[in-house]
TrEMBL record:
Gene3D superfamilies: Exo-inulinase, domain 1. It comes from the Bacteria. Residues 106-229 form the 3-keto-alpha-glucoside-1,2-lyase/3-keto-2-hydroxy-glucal hydratase domain. This is 3-keto-alpha-glucoside-1,2-lyase/3-keto-2-hydroxy-glucal hydratase domain-containing protein. The lineage of its organism: Bacteria, Pseudomonadati, Bacteroidota, Cytophagia, Cytophagales.
C-alpha cells in the first residue's frame, strides 16, 4: 500500500473514534471522541462529558484545525432532524489545570449531523466571557459554525461578528439553551427569554437533516440534562423589516 494512503487511513481512524453508547433515562448517546458517564451532580443524575485528547489530540499551535470537530455525544434514536426545537440544560466547568490559556468553557449543540460525521451545524457558548467587563470579549460569547468549511476562525476572517454574539451566561451555573431551527435559519434562546439572544439568518451547511449531539471542547467539563427535541414542519416566515446603514 502507498505510504501516503496508509498515513491518510491512520489519520482518518484517529480522528473518527466512535466509542461506547451510554443510556441516560430514555435516551442513548454514542460517544464520539469524548469520555462520558452518568454522575450525581448537585443532587441529581446528569450526563457528564469531556473531550478525549487521546482519541482526538489538541494542538495549541493550530487551534482551528483541532477544535470544533468530531468530539461530541450523539443522540442515537433520531437521525432525521431537519426543522424544530432543540432544548437542553447545560453546565460548564473548566478543567483544573486547563490544557491551554484560551479555554472558555466551550459547550453547546450540534445538529443536522451527517451519518459519517462529514458535516453539521452548531451553536455553542463560551461562558467564561459572558459577563466580563469587556464588550469585545462579550461579543465572542456565542458562536455559530458549520463543519467542515466554516469553523470559528474562518468565519471571523470572512464575516467578523456576523456569526458570533453576546449572551448573559457564566461558568459554574446551569444554562438553558433552546435553538429553533427553520430552513436556513436558527435562533438561540437563553434561560426562557421571550426573545432570541442570537440569530443565524442563513446557515452555511449543505446538509438539511441529520443527528443531534451534545458538544464540549478543549478544557470543558460539561454536564447536561433535560434534552428535548421537537420536530416541526418548515414554517414560511413573512419578510421582516428591512434595515440598512446602521
Amino acid at each position: 500500500m502507498n505510504k501516503s494512503i496508509l498515513l491518510s487511513l491512520i489519520c482518518l481512524f484517529a480522528f473518527e473514534s466512535f466509542g461506547q453508547t451510554i443510556k441516560f433515562g430514555k435516551q442513548s448517546f454514542e460517544l464520539h471522541n469524548v469520555t462520558g458517564s452518568i454522575v450525581n451532580f448537585q443532587g441529581k443524575k446528569v450526563f457528564r462529558i469531556e473531550r478525549d485528547f487521546e482519541k482526538f489530540p489538541f494542538d495549541s499551535t493550530n487551534v482551528e484545525k483541532t477544535v470544533d470537530d468530531r468530539h461530541y455525544a450523539r443522540l442515537t434514536n433520531l437521525n432525521d432532524f431537519e426543522n424544530g426545537t432543540i432544548e437542553v440544560k447545560m453546565y460548564s466547568q473548566i478543567q483544573n489545570p486547563p490544557p491551554y490559556s484560551g479555554v472558555a468553557g466551550f459547550i453547546g449543540l450540534y445538529f443536522r449531523i451527517q451519518e459519517d460525521d462529514s458535516a453539521w451545524e452548531s451553536i455553542y457558548v463560551r461562558p467564561k466571557v459572558g459577563r466580563v467587563d469587556n464588550q469585545l470579549f462579550r461579543n465572542h460569547t456565542v458562536q455559530y459554525f458549520s463543519y467542515p468549511n466554516f469553523k470559528f476562525d474562518t468565519l471571523r476572517k470572512i464575516a467578523p461578528f456576523k456569526y458570533e454574539g453576546s449572551a448573559p451566561v457564566a461558568l459554574n451555573e446551569w444554562i438553558k439553551m433552546r435553538i429553533e431551527v427553520n430552513g436556513e435559519t436558527a435562533e438561540m434562546f437563553i434561560n426562557d427569554a421571550k426573545y432570541s439572544t442570537f440569530v443565524v439568518d442563513k446557515m452555511l451547511g449543505e446538509g438539511k437533516k441529520g443527528y443531534i449531539g451534545l458538544y464540549v471542547d478543549c478544557g470543558t467539563i460539561g454536564y447536561f440534562k433535560d434534552l428535548k427535541v421537537t420536530k416541526k414542519a418548515l414554517k414560511v416566515k413573512k419578510a421582516g423589516e428591512k434595515v440598512n446603514n446602521i
